[in-house]
């Protein structure tokens, strides 16, 4: 892990950023929080956290030239990117929370509401659940399969291209827990709230 990293968290008004900032710092990150696209310049890694509705998230993210700079840095310059919870959901082509809304569109797929399949399943989905791997990824290096991570959500991503899916969780008939497309990563759970294993995942991201 390099000490020369510059981890940039995007503040678009959809999350309390203190916990993810502290977690990244404890994992060796030199962390800053920005709310303008031009302030992303120089980032070695970019993190998009978030809790809330898809439509509000995209509205807020569209301000300050943020999407322009994200496309340039992540798609063209291949800066490693991690979307957390809503931050992962916004990577899809579209979402339906708060009305049908176009997403960032880096990943082929949609964000849809979870549907209960059993009487004992509750929505929103809040708590610890096992994450099962579909394929190998640097994100889960040194983390055993079927480890529990902490979730808080009522929507999930649906990806027709399974090559982008690296992990699932068996809740509400199963949903995508993590994705990867080249330098773009996303997790539905909250690594900053997932104790030791969550911190290991953040270390893995920083080392990418």
Query: In the CATH hierarchy, what is the superfamily?
Result: Class I glutamine amidotransferase (GATase) domain
Extract low-pLDDT stretches: none
Tell me the series of helices and strands, N- to C-terminal.
EHEEHHEHEEEEEEEEEH
Q: Quote the beta fraction.
A: 25-35%
By DSSP (H or I, 4+ residues per run), the number of helices equals 5
Indicate the structural class: alpha/beta
Keywords:
alpha/beta; 208 residues; four-stranded mixed β-sheet
Task: Provide structural commentary.
- With 208 residues, this protein is an alpha/beta fold.
- Helices cover 22% and strands 31% of the residues.
- It is built from five helices and 13 strands.
- The strands form two sheets. The protein has a nine-stranded mixed sheet.
- It is globular, with a radius of gyration of 16 Å.
List the helices and strands and how they pair.
Layout: E1 7-10, H1 18-26, E2 31-34, E3 45-48, H2 54-61, H3 66-76, E4 81-84, H4 86-89, E5 92-95, E6 101-102, E7 107-113, E8 125-133, E9 147-153, E10 155-158, E11 165-169, E12 175-181, E13 184-187, H5 195-207
Parallel strand pairs: 1-2, 1-3, 3-4, 4-13, 5-7
Antiparallel strand pairs: 5-6, 7-10, 8-9, 8-11, 11-12, 12-13
